[in-house]
Structure formats: structure tokens, C-alpha cells
Amino acid sequence: MIYIGNILLDVYGNFDLKCSTYVNSLSMEICAQAEEKERNQEQHTLAIPQS
């Protein structure tokens, strides 16, 4: 688990709903950056067995 302020990101990238609950512009910006990073690394994540 990765904590950024009040935003919780897990290794599976399930943070869309959590992020949408925050209206703070900075939180949303951090969230958007995390989402972009996750998409960019998605192919690498899928290559790693998740157990």
C-alpha cells in the first residue's frame, strides 16, 4: 500500500473511486499523476504474477 496524503493507492491501481471522493485540487492532481504513471507501467504490472 502507498499513502499519499489522504489518498490510498494499492498495488493493483484501485484508486479511481478513492480519488474521486477528494475535491482538493492538489489531491486530485497527485491522483491524476498516479493514474498516468500506473497506465504507463501497466504492461510491466501485468507481467508480474500477483499473489
Name the quaternary structure. Answer: single chain
- Give a short account of the largest sheet: 2 strands, antiparallel
* Structural class by helix and strand composition: mainly alpha
N-to-C CA distance: 15 Å
What percentage of residues falls in helices of 4 or more residues?
Answer: 40-55%
The proportion of residues in beta strands is 5-15%
Radius of gyration from the CA trace? 11 Å
Task: Give the integer mean of the pLDDT values.
Answer: 62
The number of distinct structural domains comes to 1
Model description:
With 51 residues, the chain is mainly alpha-helical. The protein has one domain. 51% of the residues lie in helices and 12% in strands. It has three helices and two strands, in the order E-E-H-H-H. The protein has helices at residues 16-20, 25-40, 42-46; strands at 2-4, 7-9. The chain has a two-stranded antiparallel sheet.
Task: Summarize this structure as a short list of keywords or feature phrases.
single chain, mainly alpha, 2 strands, elongated
Task: Give a concise summary.
This protein has one domain. Helices cover 51% and strands 12% of the residues. It contains three helices and two strands; from the N terminus they run ββααα.
Ordered list of secondary-structure elements with their pairings:
Blueprint: E1 2-4, E2 7-9, H1 16-20, H2 25-40, H3 42-46
Antiparallel strand pairs: 1-2
